[in-house]
Amino acid sequence: MKLRFALAATTAMAVMTGTASADTMKIGITQNNVGVDSYQTTYEKAFIAAAEANDAVEAVVLDAGGDVARQIAQMEDLIQQEVDAIIIWPTNGEAVIPAVRKAHQADIPVIVTNSNIAEPGFDFVASFSGPDNITQGSRSAEIMCDKFKEMGIEDEAQIVQISGQPGYTTAIERAKGFEDRLPEVCPNVTLMETQPGDWNREKSQQVMEAFLVKYDDIDGVYAGDDNMGVGALNAAKAAGRDGIIFVGATNFAVGYEAMAAGDYWGSIYQSPVDDAEAALQTALDVLNGKEVPFLNYFDTPKITQDNMDEFSKPVF
Amino acid sequence: MKAGKLSDALKKGAIWGFILLELIFFSVAGQFLSLSDSAFMDLDNMLLLLKQSAPIGIIAIGMTIVMINGNIDLSVGATFAIAAIVLLDSMTWPIFAGLGDWVIPVSWLLALTVGTLLGALNGLIVWKTGVDAFIVTLGAMLGYRGMVFMFNGENPTSHLNWTLVDFAEAQLLGIHTPTWFLLGVTLAIWFVMTRTVHGRNAYAIGDNREAAVNAGIRVGPHMMINFAIIGFLAALSAVVFYSESGSVNPNDGQLYELWVITAVVLGGTKITGGAGSVIGTFGGVIAIQLLRKGLGHIGADTSTVNLVIGLILIAVLILDRQLNIRGKEELKL
């Protein structure tokens, strides 16, 4: 594995000159915005580590810095450099479609990672590697239902939902997964109302404050991610309302800490390390001619107060 | 006098010397560090470089006139985003439904008109209120960006039209469509600045506004025209770029104003106005894209690119100061 950084350039030069052999696979990745949050930073580190550990892989690791124009330019550069496969974490699920088509036309398989591109681009993509948001939603429903059964209130519980930013696929799919699964496992639990928290902790706190005024009896809160869940938790704490079961999706460090403190019940554990390794593995499988499902999900297990010691604290 | 000529030649040649240096460096370093088997100086790669320079480049050409004028426009990134939204959204308007693919020129025209009007509005405010262009366009930058977010919240605005994508991806005589636009704009504005009265007036106003007024130049309308030109070019840049990628994020174009100003300053235009050239700016744009592309070619981090460009910008300004003693005397506050 040879990986290049400007700062490591001098040392790298000695190591790698002329060692490129014909049977290594050149894989280029263009990421969304490394450094904007620790999920993406950890993802990049894990990707580089995974690529370095594999002798058959040469990786070109690029970052679009959240800029669509730069990501498109990076796609063009990777095509120009004739890499064997391209992994893309889209900055915009639609804007990159023409660039993905260009790679497809140049016979370079494209693997989309973390969040999928829009449907008109599906024809040009070899595989999508990422979390299954529907499953995440339905698992959250199961976590909540199991807890209600344990408490013996599965026939009377009333809950509210705080969803992610409207229009985001992740938000829509997580809500759908939750809403579809809940009546299957706990048919008598009532979902009273859903309001968007826009992935934002303060916004969710306000939404929850309104819920607390409106409803005297809230047994559970489902939030589209832990950031929003903790916002809701803060509102409940401030209002002095105890005994509410909080369940999130995508376990954040704040959620993990609240679980450790016993305030927050459970969530879904999504590791950026698994995400990165799954993307690289998907690319390798595609290049090796293996059958890869178009939607190639990696597992995101349930995490609750009961089993949280099996997981390390999320870095984000 | 001789020394002045020498420093002049040095200043004008500096950007091209720098580009040459970059080309040599990345060609040599690429031999050792790049994963690519093809050379950095590969013809296709250089054509791609020109194409990738277009979004920033087209705006930078317009910024050159405004800066020669002694003004600045910080709102170009936001204008860029608004024009993009007009372009993509208007293609889906029901009133144009009967047009088929003829909606494309209509949407282009709409986007360009909106950009021109927004630019002219900046110019009008600068003209009529006498408030410094920096402040006016800073306000416009925030205001126009606010309009972008009001339009569709945090969501992207999208419309993918494959006819348009095919046009934008076409390569006439091997040269990409965006490159043609960049070259055309450069040529047109070069002509305006060097061969017309309007161009001469632009230098005169930037050099000494009071003297220009006394000489009978109508400074206000002149500046407004230039703001309209840069608004038009910001919209043109958006139109060219988004024809190839049918979706605009509400924060697209952010920081473009800074990249554009960097390119113009690298190209030797004085921030205080009165001196500069469109061809120099073209060089500045190429230099930045070359650096981005080259550092990517040898596998450097994105953050490294920003650091290097920042250092070079400061170095260029110091060099400019040392070479231009006359400029020191003229420093106006």
UniProtKB/TrEMBL annotation, chain A:
Database matches in Gene3D superfamilies: 3.40.50.2300
Which top-rank group of organisms is this from? Answer: Bacteria
Q: Where in the cell is it found?
A: Cell envelope
Residue ranges of every copy of the Periplasmic binding protein domain listed in the record: 32-291
Instruction: Output the Pfam families linked to this UniProt entry.
Output: Peripla_BP_4
Ordered alphabetically, the record's keywords are: Signal
InterPro entries in the record: Peripla_BP_I (IPR028082), SBP_2_dom (IPR025997)
- The residue range of the signal peptide is 1-22
What protein family does this chain belong to? Belongs to the bacterial solute-binding protein 2 family.
What's the protein here called? Ribose transport system substrate-binding protein
Automatic annotation (TrEMBL), chain B:
Compartment annotation: Cell membrane
- A Pfam family annotated for this chain is BPD_transp_2
Asked if the Swiss-Prot or TrEMBL record annotates the protein with the keyword Amino-acid biosynthesis, the reply is no
Task: List where the protein spans the membrane.
Answer: 12-33, 53-69, 76-96, 102-121, 133-152, 172-193, 224-243, 258-291, 298-319
Going by the UniProt record, its keywords in alphabetical order are: Cell inner membrane, Cell membrane, Membrane, Transmembrane, Transmembrane helix, Transport
Please tell me where this protein is predominantly located: membrane
Q: Does the keyword Amino-acid biosynthesis apply?
A: no
**How is it placed in the membrane, per its record?**
Multi-pass membrane protein
Q: How does it assemble?
A: The complex is composed of two ATP-binding proteins (LsrA), two transmembrane proteins (LsrC and LsrD) and a solute-binding protein (LsrB).
Relate the protein's function as given in its record: Part of the ABC transporter complex LsrABCD involved in autoinducer 2 (AI-2) import. Probably responsible for the translocation of the substrate across the membrane.
Protein name as annotated = Autoinducer 2 import system permease protein LsrD
Instruction: Give the lineage.
Output: Bacteria, Pseudomonadati, Pseudomonadota, Alphaproteobacteria, Rhodobacterales
